[in-house]
Design a protein that fits this description.
alpha/beta; TIM Barrel; 11 helices; globular; Aldo-Keto_reductase; NADP_OxRdtase_dom; oxidoreductase activity; Aldo/keto reductase; NAD(P)_OxRdtase_dom_sf
Length: about 280
Amino acid sequence: MQFRRIGDVQVSAIGLGGMPMSIEGRPDEARSIATIHAALDAGITFIDTADAYHLYADEVGHNETLIAKALAAYGGDTSGVLVATKGGHLRPGDGSWTRNGSPDHLKRACEASLKRLGADAIGLYQFHRPDPSVPYEESVGALRELLDEGKIRMAGVSNANPEQIELANRVLDGRLVSVQNQFSPRFRSSEPELDLCDRLGIAFLPWSPLGGISRAGDLGSAHEPFARVAAAHGVSPQQVCLAWMLAKSEQVIPIPGSSRPETIRDSGAAVDLMLTPEELASLD
């Protein structure tokens, strides 16, 4: 497994996105735990979650609890695993998504996530999505206070534009370590944010890197160059996609969502797939 850095922490170059294990269509708990264990067996040391990854109003933090349970049940060493979670995006339980970026809410949400994860401090805490009703600097200011209090070890933002990234870094006194934005062959509009992170030395964490839960399986048919390169290497188009992302910048750490052991093992193998300059140009 290749490694990259988030802040001063070394993590696997491919992470595991936990969302599919807790929202619509989620598998039973045994398969989810097997998926997390398969990721750990493959050398993956970065797991992404959020308090909003749940179905029903009375199970906020379902995915955080699941990940904590899986880590506790794993037979190997998990001391090097970085779990990142997020706050500020909510699911009322009716399938909709809402936002609350108020500092009071983010501090309460962080405390609740801390308890569910069973940690002394959250390794990486990210502001999940800007709330138009709250000044961005106030939301990020809550993360600064959590950092200063030692409740979180690192801070990041998600779904942010370049201006918000630069503002967050100023509010955090240069301590912004990650930006988690949507990025995939289907969704390329976060390339300015990726370029900015590359210049600033901030980790860029593409969410839904394979196109999302409902489209990941169709990546090859929807984007023919990825299928063609995959056939040439005898691997899946999904592996090609992740290898293409990794080649873009040393700051990129894709976090493909998975709910089956075989899919996360396939994703993890992307770190060993070396694409030629000509292949990368055709994918771009």
